[in-house]
Amino acid sequence: VTLEGRAAESDVPDFLWPDVEHAPPPGLTRRARTNDNWSGHVPGEVGLWIFILGDMTLFGAIFIVMMWENRSARAVFHGSALELSRSIGVVNTLVLLLSSYLVVAAVWAHRRDDHARSSRMVFAAIGCALVFAALKAVEYSYGIGGGHTPATNLFFTFYFVLTGVHLLHVVVGTGLLAAWSVAMRRRTPWNASRRLFEGVAVYWHMVDLLWIAIFTLVYLVCAT
Amino acid sequence: MNLGVPLRTTVIWVGLVLATCLTWSLGTGHFAATESLHVTVALAMVIAFLKVYFIGSEFMELRGAPRALRAAFLAWVVVVGTATTMLYVV
């Protein structure tokens, strides 16, 4: 029975599995999903989630302020947002979605202590991050070449702050993925640093989900 | 190619990719300030925050996380999604 098959067969108690050390995390089984507020599997650790949710809240607040300002300056936002390359934005969304899937695949491979496959997946995800950063550099060079800076108008202030801070997250996330790949080269077992590896994956998925919101609001909504 | 990812996660990922391709047509189309465009864009916002929810529940594995954590994440999606969509629509 494969690992993912076991996750699907979550009604089977752990003790019936021949090698429980390869069981999926308890949180992924239906049994663990109780009405108790605190039971279940925390991906990574609680401290990480305080940071993740805090970071997301900061971005969320900027999104709301931007949409508020958009109401009173629709013409400026509309004209400015139309100058952004929506095609690059969509491609970057797909690139980050692919990277997220590769990170999920890396987590599952590492859970099986299949370091070779896990390492390949993480390297591919790092490749996606580099493509994202390269496309972002092209976009910035066109924008700045076209005379747009954070001081041009309020829209471009939001644009450069949101995409700039997000790019910083991409850089940090890439560094974390690289650290994970080093651990895999040393053949660190999953159970030895489970919280760290899950934390890296969660951070990367946050980078992905924040981009989805940035792309929709900045490139699409403000342009209409 | 089997990457060892649960089928459910793969299906949701394909859905996320398809939803992104759907917004591609919006992203490359010519924008005219019509009533139907505003409805379409509002729909795109709802889809975007649904995508965010699925990334959290499936990729971040919040689906099996303690209820308090799931609730905190869901609260972000609902509050930020509703506030931004309402500020655009109303």
Poorly predicted parts of chain A: 6-22
Task: Note the run of SSEs of chain B as H and E.
Answer: HHH
Largest interface: A-B, 69 and 51 residues
**Overall pLDDT of chain B, averaged?**
88
Q: What is the element string of chain A, with H for helices and E for strands?
A: HHHHHHH
Helix content of chain B: over 70%
Number of strands of chain A: 0
Specify the helix fraction band of chain A.
over 70%
Q: What class, by secondary structure content of chain A?
A: mainly alpha
Oligomer: heterodimer
What does this structure look like?
The complex is a heterodimer of chains A (224) and B (90). With 224 residues, chain A is an all-alpha fold. Helix content of chain A is 71%, strand content 0%. Chain A is built from seven helices and no strands. Chain A has helices at residues 3-8, 46-72, 74-81, 86-111, 115-145, 154-185, 194-221. The longest helix of chain A has 32 residues, at 154-185. Chain A is elongated and about 55 Å long. Chain B has 90 residues and is an all-alpha fold. Chain B contains three helices and no strands. In chain B, α1 runs antiparallel to α2 (35-59) and α2 runs antiparallel to α3. The N and C termini of chain B lie far apart (46 Å). Classes of the chains: A mainly alpha (224), B mainly alpha (90). At the A-B interface, α1, α2, α4 and α7 of A face α1, α2 and α3 of B.
